[in-house]
Give the backbone structure.
Amino acid sequence: MDPAVALIRTTLNAASKAAPRLAGRAAFELYRHPVRRGRVRTREREVHDRAVTETLTVGGERVVVHRWGDGARPVLLLHGWQSRSSRFADFVPRLNALGLTPIAFDAPGHGDSGGRTTTVPGYRDIALRLQERYGDFEAVVAHSLGVNAAFLALRSGLRAGRLVAVAGVAEVSYLPAAFCARLGLNATVEAEVGRRVESGAMFPGVTDVAAHFDAARNPEEIGLPILVAHDEDDDVVPFGHARRLAAAYGDRLELLVTRGLGHRRILTEPAVIDNVVGFLAAGHGSQTGGAPDVASASDAGRASGAGHQRGAA
């Protein structure tokens, strides 16, 4: 076990017996701030370095934006918590081959951007700013917490033709419990973290956090086709989140189930990327011609332990 994690667990659990609110406040600060900034991996470096970068100021924070292309037919990429734009490196050349321009940003507190933390509404606000600059998006491709942000943004005026949700968070209300479980924090600390989240300390003005950030609520508000890719062995975001989305969106949603990839490797698995490219090509066509259809892409997915379901619940 990471010695730092062991120290945090021991200290906060012990403190909760004498000062539960103090321990809860300390845990809440850890919960809302990324522990570390993800670095650009060696295999991502070439793609990362050839991006055109720009800087926005959103909510008082400096946000670094990466663009691969001239801006025509933009596709918005949304990374997850403690991640960064470069994690989509394997998608970039495939999207470029379809004549699309991938556009991604490092959320505040992540990657090369400023700040110490970010929230789902923060993601939304940046996405809407990028829409002002580049126009409607051909698609949104999101991973993990970025998926929840994508649904919120689409309900808030973001316009896109298709949505790809990879290992996505359907409900943010599960996050405090998941955070405490991963650190081994006791029920007292967990209750205090949850209380602070629900009280509006993290989302001012939101009276019902669970309902507001439920990606499956009011599915009629999201009128575009959706591809959900999720691994049955995901130990960060349980597979039940994918099932929840599939049950809500029915025939408008295709569910790609993988096995053995977990939460992060699913984003670099060639068969998953084939499925995503096929899904996007089927909806928008390709400027280069001969774009794969969804059927051929899903055949590739099944060959590596992935399977497609439509409207699965």
User: Anything to note?
Assistant: The longest strand covers residues 52-58.
